[in-house]
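Propose amino acids for all 170 sites.
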């Protein structure tokens, strides 16, 4: 009564739709892989500039974000807040932008301007920051305002340098 025509996707219309979706998914996959490779290359350059030992750390998907947060004085285990439904992604975005801001400060760049640039054009920001001649100097930046509260970074990863003011119990 409601369905006057039955389609089992054996028609040319169904095949054309399937072919279009398959090509579209393949193109999206190629762009995702290219974005991952480009971001890993430039993140490894940023990690080298920051004194992180071994470039492979930039190629491991979750671990590279944890190292990035650590370089930005955010406890790297807060990465996992992104798995909380709905609010987790927003909270992680805020933490990521805070880490980006702190990294810009440590590079001696215009922190607010570069952070806004990085928020809207993250991959291009990563390329610019990685190839920039600025030296990574964590000692030139005062401790973050969250140094004595819940966001405090007191995690130690082997091969990742101490950020200058975070005391560790060795």
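Proposal:
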């Amino acid at each position: 009564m409601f369905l006057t025509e039955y389609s089992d996707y054996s028609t040319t219309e169904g095949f054309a739709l399937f072919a279009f979706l398959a090509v579209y998914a393949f193109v999206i996959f190629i762009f995702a892989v290219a974005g991952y490779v480009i971001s890993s290359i430039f993140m490894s350059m940023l990690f080298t500039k920051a004194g992180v030992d071994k470039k492979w750390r930039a190629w491991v998907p979750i671990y590279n974000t944890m190292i990035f947060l650590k370089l930005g004085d955010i406890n790297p285990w807060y990465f996992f807040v992104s798995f909380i439904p709905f609010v987790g992604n927003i909270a992680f975005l805020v933490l990521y932008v805070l880490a980006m801001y702190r990294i810009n400060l440590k590079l001696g760049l215009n922190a607010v301007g570069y952070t806004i640039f990085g928020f809207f054009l993250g991959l291009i920001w990563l390329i610019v920051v990685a190839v920039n001649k600025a030296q990574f100097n964590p000692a030139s930046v005062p401790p973050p305002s969250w140094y004595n509260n819940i966001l405090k970074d007191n995690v130690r990863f082997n091969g990742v340098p101490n950020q200058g003011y975070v005391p560790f119990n060795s």
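Residues 166-170 have pLDDT under 50 and may be disordered. The chain has five helices and no strands.
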